[in-house]
Specification:
Blueprint: H1 3-19, H2 24-44, H3 53-64, H4 67-75, H5 77-84, H6 95-105, E1 112-115, E2 135-148, E3 151-156, E4 162-169, H7 177-184, E5 188-197, E6 200-209
Helix pairs in contact: 1-2, 2-6
Length: about 210
């Protein structure tokens, strides 16, 4: 399994923990595990001198993020609160900064929906997202497909067979995820999933089997 796939598993685990009863510290540790694996994937693509862990993270942020993304991160409210220790450090949630960082390092999966069933164009529940402006394109995801109560259910598996899906990219998605989550209900969990498009590999959110 690639470092990227391992990182996505860690990120999804952290999100599942956050939705449950896990402490903020435990969620933050799970996100750090994912960021470390993402960093390992990034280091494999480099041929220059070895870097220490902290230097590697700093360099990955400087070289892996565009100037605009760096500026957004620096100006973000969670990072400003962390720097100012406001609220107090005991109450601060470091996961907010980590989630923002991973979203930028993964090229903003928060703006990408991978639709494999009823949310796709022409399908029965497309109206849930049809009011959002964006771009649809074909993609391929790996895993298993099954049916539950007449609905298609997907489970991500990097070693699974290929399945055709549709990738929707929209700057309007970040503010709409809570509404779409409620629509999908308890049987589905929004998780990070890699998808192969004509332009290459990308990462977006897909609604997968909750269990």
């Amino acid at each position: 399994m690639s470092h990227l796939a391992q990182a996505l598993f860690d990120f999804n685990h952290a999100f599942d923990m956050a939705a449950g009863q896990a402490s903020k510290a435990d969620v933050a540790r799970a996100l750090v595990d994912g960021l470390n694996k993402l960093q390992a994937q990034w280091l494999m693509s480099r041929d220059d001198r070895p870097l220490g862990e902290l230097e590697a993270l700093r360099t990955m942020i400087l070289l892996g993020l565009s100037g605009e993304a760096q500026d957004t991160l620096v100006r973000s409210e969670p990072l400003q609160q962390l720097v100012a220790l406001n609220p107090s450090v005991m109450k601060h949630d470091p996961a907010q900064v980590q989630e923002l960082l991973l979203d930028m390092l993964l090229d903003r999966p928060s703006t990408k929906l991978i639709a494999y069933g009823s949310l796709a164009p022409g399908q029965s529940n497309h109206s849930v997202v049809s009011d959002l402006k964006g771009q649809w394109q074909a993609c391929v995801i790996r895993g298993t497909m099954s049916h539950k109560d007449g609905w298609l259910v997907y489970s991500w598996d990097p070693a699974g067979p290929d399945h055709n899906a549709t990738l929707f990219t929209s700057n309007g998605l970040p503010g709409q995820w809570p509404r779409i989550d409620r629509f999908e209900g308890a049987d589905y969990r929004r998780r990070l999933v890699p998808a192969q498009t004509q332009g290459g590999l990308t990462v977006g959110y897909a609604y997968t089997a909750a269990r």
